[in-house]
């Protein structure tokens, strides 16, 4: 059976949100808000500005989870291992260093993942 990229995004998003719901109960509300607004931030402000917005709380568990889940989504140009660096700083740095075509592709891929993350948050984490 062939699995589409959209199906992979959906499965990853639901796995990520279910992990938050089960293992981080104190972060559910903040994570839900962040997950539901990720796509809007990217559309309004652009990829780098949206990542900077989420990076503003580097010690917050919900912010670390958002960046962890972006990394798990396998978004072009934003994934990989930089060694010991914290992912909350690695992903924005990678986004800032992308060539224009890669930046546009990463933006499109993040928007597609953000849509599934939003759907998963709506379905999994109650208000």
Notes on the structure:
74% of the residues lie in helices and 0% in strands. It has a single domain, classed as Peroxidase, domain 1.
In short:
By secondary structure, the protein is mainly α. The chain has 6 helices and no strands.
Q: Which CATH architecture would you pick?
A: Orthogonal Bundle
CATH homologous superfamily label: AF1862-like domain
Low-pLDDT windows of residues: none
**Biggest beta-sheet profile:** none
Structural class: mainly alpha
How many helices in DSSP terms?
A: 6
Helix and strand run: HHHHHH
Distance between the termini: 36 Å
| Name of the level-1 CATH class | Mainly Alpha
Q: Helix amount, in percent? A: over 70%
Average pLDDT number: 93
The tally of strands reads 0
CATH fold-level name: Peroxidase, domain 1
Walk me through the topology.
Layout (H helix, E strand, L loop, with lengths): L4 H19 L4 H18 L1 H9 L5 H12 L14 H11 L2 H25 L3
Helix pairs in contact: 1-6, 2-3, 2-4, 2-6, 3-5
Features:
6 helices, 127 residues, single chain, globular, Peroxidase, domain 1, mainly alpha
